[in-house]
Amino acid sequence: MVVVPHSEMQFGNFDSDSYYDIEQCNIYVKALGHGLKTVEFVLLKDSLCFVEAKPSVPADFKQFISDVVQKFKDSLVLFLALYLKRHEGEVLPEKLANVAIREVPAEFVLVLKRTSKQDLIPVQAALAKAFKGVLLSWNLSPNAVKVLNEELAQKYHLIPSELK
């Protein structure tokens, strides 16, 4: 089982075959400083989840949304490159490597630790609007973009109650 800290939260108990720390991928590490950004991790649940975590929304809201959208897009492209074995030596965990990607929905999840449920609404709306082109091109539901606080992330089984 995998437990990982991100943005003052503990994420886990994930099956190691379903969890991928995309930030530690050699391709990402080599690309640092070249404009490639990634989410914290990729997780296979009932869907393929791309998870980004932040303690809160910073003052520059527009830039924040832009950065999260870039992380979601770059992570999707990088994951697909790894899935298609475009990079020698990079190996995804077994369940992620063997997932029938055509049959599994994708979700893009932003977890904000210190944000009330009410304050999640404008973030959700802005993120869904900014990410709409990707949702349309991949034929994904508008519900594929989720914005959660720590409490909702616990209900979504990203943060276990005993580790909170």
How would you characterize this protein structure?
It is built from six helices and seven strands, in the order E-E-E-H-E-E-H-H-E-H-H-E-H. It is 36% helix and 22% strand. It is of the alpha/beta class and 164 residues long. The strands form two sheets. A five-stranded mixed beta sheet has the order 3-4-5-6-7. Strands 1-2 form a two-stranded antiparallel sheet. The model has no long low-confidence stretch (mean pLDDT 92). A hairpin with a 3-residue loop joins strand 4 (41-44) and strand 5 (48-54). The protein has one domain (2-155). It has helices at 26-31, 61-83, 94-97, 117-130, 132-137, 150-155; strands at 2-6, 9-14, 19-20, 41-44, 48-54, 106-112, 145-149.
Supply database-style keywords.
164 residues; alpha/beta; 5-stranded mixed sheet; two-stranded antiparallel ribbon; 6 helices; 22% strand
SSE topology sketch:
Layout: E1 2-6, E2 9-14, E3 19-20, H1 26-31, E4 41-44, E5 48-54, H2 61-83, H3 94-97, E6 106-112, H4 117-130, H5 132-137, E7 145-149, H6 150-155
Parallel strand pairs: 5-6, 6-7
Antiparallel strand pairs: 1-2, 3-4, 4-5
Helix pairs in contact: 2-4
